[in-house]
Write a structure and sequence with these properties.
alpha/beta; Rossmann fold; 8-stranded mixed sheet; two-stranded antiparallel ribbon; 13 helices; globular
Length: 350
C-alpha cells in the first residue's frame, strides 16, 4: 500500500518518461481546507480524473502521467493529508477521513464528478469515496489496491508494530541508505518479487524526513494494517459497484499486495474489467506508463459514467451482498473470496 515520491527514477521498461506536452504545468498548488494546507496538482481541461496516491507517497508519483492524461481531461492529484507537501496534523487518517477530505477538496475546486484512479492505499480510499459519495463518482480504476484481502507485505506489518518510529529513524542514518541500496540491488539481481518494489519502498523512507512525517505515516498505516495484515476490507460492499464502471490493474509480481487480490476483487465486483501487467511489481503505472495511460484512455472512452440513483442504491442495500461470482476465477481463488467474505464482520471499511 505504498506509493513512490520519485517515479521518474524507476521506469524499468523505458529509458525516459512518457512524452509530455510542453504547455502543461504540473507544479504544486495549495488550498487551506478546515484550517489545514492541502497540496495538489491540477492540469488540463475536460472531464475530471482524480489520482490518489498510496501510503507514504504524494502526487509526485503521478508526475509524468499527469501531462499525458491532461491532454483530454482535467487531472487533479492531491497530496493526502499527512503526505507530501500537505499538512501533517495529529488527526484521523482513516480511509473514510481521506474520502471526506477528497470530497471537500473537489468542492473547493468546483468539481462535481470525477473518474477516480487510486493506487494501493489510494485504491482503498477511491473505493471508500465511491461508497460514501456515489453521486460524485463516474468510474473507478483501482491499481494494486488495498482492502481486498488480509495479505500484505511483511515490511508493512512490521512497521505497524510498536517501535516503528525508531526503525524508520535508523533507516535514515548516514550510511544506512547505501547499505539498503546494496541489499535491494541484490534482490533485484536475484529476480525476486520484492526486488521489483524495493527501490520504490525505500523512496517512502526518503519521503519521511522528520518526526512529524513519520508520525503521520505510522498513524495512516495503523489505520489499515496491523501485525496480522490488512484490517479493513472492501469486499463486504463491492456489490454496490453494480453499474459503476470499474477497471482493476495489477502487476503480476506485486510483492506488496499480491496479484491474487486482483482476481478476488474482479470476482466480487459486478462487471469489472481486469488488466494484469506481466512482470510488473506494485507500481504497474511506473513499469509501463504508456500502456497505463492508453488503458485509462480506452476505459474512459468505452464506458459511460455511472448514473447514480438513490432508489437504485436503496434496492441494492435491501438485496444485500450476493455470494462470490463463480466461474470467473479458479477454485483456489473462489475459496479465498469466500474466506475473506466471512472475515468482513471483523474488518469493516466504514
Amino acid at each position: 500500500m505504498l506509493s513512490s515520491a520519485a517515479p521518474a527514477q524507476y521506469l524499468p521498461t523505458r529509458t525516459s518518461p512518457p512524452r509530455q506536452p510542453d504547455d502543461v504545468d504540473v507544479h504544486l498548488r495549495f488550498h487551506t481546507v478546515h484550517g489545514y494546507r492541502r497540496a495538489y496538482r491540477i492540469a488540463g481541461h475536460g472531464p475530471a480524473i482524480l489520482l490518489i496516491h498510496g501510503i507514504g507517497g504524494s502526487s509526485a508519483t503521478w508526475e509524468h502521467l499527469i501531462p499525458v492524461l491532461a491532454r483530454t481531461h482535467t487531472v487533479i492529484a492531491p497530496d493526502l493529508l499527512g503526505h507530501g507537501a500537505s499538512d501533517k496534523p495529529r488527526a484521523d487518517y482513516s480511509v473514510a477521513a481521506y474520502a471526506n477530505g477528497i470530497r471537500d477538496l473537489l468542492g473547493v475546486l468546483d468539481i462535481d464528478h470525477a473518474t477516480l484512479i487510486g493506487h494501493s492505499l489510494g485504491g482503498g480510499v477511491a473505493m471508500q469515496f465511491a461508497y460514501q459519495f456515489p453521486e460524485h463518482t463516474e468510474r473507478l480504476i483501482l491499481v494494486s489496491a488495498g482492502g481486498v484481502g488480509r495479505e500484505v507485505t511483511k515490511v508493512l506489518r512490521a512497521v505497524s508494530l510498536p517501535g516503528a518510529d525508531l526503525l524508520l529513524s535508523l533507516l535514515r542514518l548516514p550510511g544506512m541508505r547505501g547499505q539498503m541500496g546494496l541489499i535491494t540491488g541484490l534482490m533485484k539481481l536475484m529476480d525476486t518479487d520484492i526486488g521489483h518494489d524495493a527501490k520504490e519502498m525505500l523512496n517512502v523512507v526518503d519521503a519521511l524526513p522528520d518526526a512529524t512525517s513519520r508520525a503521520a505515516f505510522i498513524a495512516t498505516l495503523r489505520s489499515v494494517v496491523d501485525w496480522k495484515g490488512q484490517m479493513i476490507t472492501m469486499l463486504d460492499r463491492c456489490y454496490l459497484t453494480a453499474g459503476m464502471p470499474t477497471q482493476l490493474v495489477w502487476g503480476s509480481r506485486d510483492s506488496v499486495v499480491p496479484v491474487r487480490h486482483a482476481h478476488r476483487a474482479h470476482a466480487a465486483m459486478p462487471g469489472s474489467r481486469l488488466e494484469i501487467f506481466e512482470g510488473a511489481g506494485h507500481f504497474p503505472f511506473h513499469a509501463d506508463p504508456d500502456r497505463f495511460c492508453a488503458l485509462v484512455d480506452d476505459f474512459i472512452n468505452t464506458t459511460t459514467p455511472a448514473d447514480w440513483s438513490a432508489e437504485r442504491w436503496r434496492v441494492l442495500l435491501r438485496e444485500g451482498r450476493p455470494g462470490p461470482t463463480l466461474g470467473l476465477v479458479g477454485a483456489a481463488h473462489q475459496r479465498a473470496v469466500v474466506r475473506d467474505l466471512r472475515l468482513v464482520s471483523e474488518r469493516s471499511a466504514t
